[in-house]
Every structure is written in structure tokens, then in C-alpha cells.
Amino acid sequence: MERLGRITTSLPDLPIDRRMTYGAMRRAIIGLPVTVSSAILPDGLWGCYDNENHVILIDRRLTYTAKRCVLTHELLHWKHGDTGCSNDRSKQERRARTQTALTLVDPAELALLEHMYDDPWSIADELNVTMQVLTDYRQILAERNIQ
């Protein structure tokens, strides 16, 4: 169990963490029974996981920050055995987005950066995450504070 303020989550046992770069993550997962490849994916698709073949595809045109976030997200789909592409509102997709944000955002670092910067783009850049991951993390905080 990982405790982040009032947020408690139990994450799958993956050999990655928020301090790792995309390259370090790729090296850390070499022994896992999942293949990660890059490809030119259709516009709007950053990555996908094929459960039948245990293959993750990541769009090669992405920045390393985006690739890092997509790899984490797709590894979580793999770890949970998710099948098929789901829409943004599915339980599988929401779980992957939530766990990606909780895996990649350090709450103490975020709190410090929020005092240093007014703009979320700079905060996301410093955290080495996409705006989507930062937005997802902030949404988690907002939901947990209401309950």
C-alpha cells in the first residue's frame, strides 16, 4: 500500500517508479512477458495494449515525457489483463489513468512546484509528466477531498 496524504492505493508490482526516465523504464521492463514497440499510430492515439499478443505500442512521434506516461499507462493495462481499447469513461481506462497519475506524481514535489509556478504547463514539465497526467492527479485530489 502506498499512502499519499489521504490517498491510498495498491499498485501492481511493476519495476518502475516516478524517478525513472522513459529509457530507464524501458530497460527495467526487459524481463517482463510483454513487448514494447514504437510505431506511427493513427492520429490521436498515443499508445495501445494488445492483450492477445502482450504487446504495447507507443507512437514514436511523442516526446520522451509523453512516452514515459503512455508506457506507464499501458503497462498498467497489461498488469491488469485489460482487453481491447476502451473509451475514456470505461472502468479500465479510469483505473489506468488514476494509477498512472498516482505512480508518476510525487505529492511533495507537486506541492513545492505549485508554490514556485503559477502555470500548470511548467509544473507538468518539472514533474516530467503530461498535462493529462497532472490533470488526472489533481482530479483525484479534488474527488478525495470532497468525500
Order of helices and strands: EEHEEEHHHHH
State the distance separating the first and last CA atoms: 20 Å
**Rg (CA only):** 15 Å
Question: How much is the average pLDDT?
Answer: 89
Q: Fraction of residues in helices?
A: 40-55%
Number of strands: 5
- Helix count from the secondary structure assignment: 6
Q: Report the principal-axis shape.
A: globular
**Largest sheet properties:** 3 strands, mixed
pLDDT < 50 runs, ≥5 residues? 1-12
Strand pairing plus helix content: what structural class? alpha+beta
* Widest sheet: strand ordering: 3-5-4
Strand content: 5-15%
Task: Provide tags for this entry.
two-stranded antiparallel ribbon, 6 helices, alpha+beta, 5 strands, 147 residues
Compile the SSE list and pairings.
Layout: E1 2-4, E2 7-9, H1 22-28, E3 35-39, E4 47-50, E5 55-59, H2 64-80, H3 91-104, H4 107-116, H5 120-127, H6 131-146
Parallel strand pairs: 3-5
Antiparallel strand pairs: 1-2, 4-5
Helix pairs in contact: 1-2, 2-3, 3-6, 4-5
Describe the structure.
With 147 residues, this protein is α+β, with helices and mostly antiparallel strands. 49% of the residues lie in helices and 14% in strands. The strands form two sheets. It has a three-stranded mixed beta sheet with strand order 3-5-4, with helices on one face. It has a two-stranded antiparallel ribbon with strand order 1-2. Strand 1 (2-4) and strand 2 (7-9) form a beta hairpin. Helix 4 packs antiparallel against helix 5. The protein is globular. The two termini are 20 Å apart. The model is unreliable at 1-12 (pLDDT under 50).
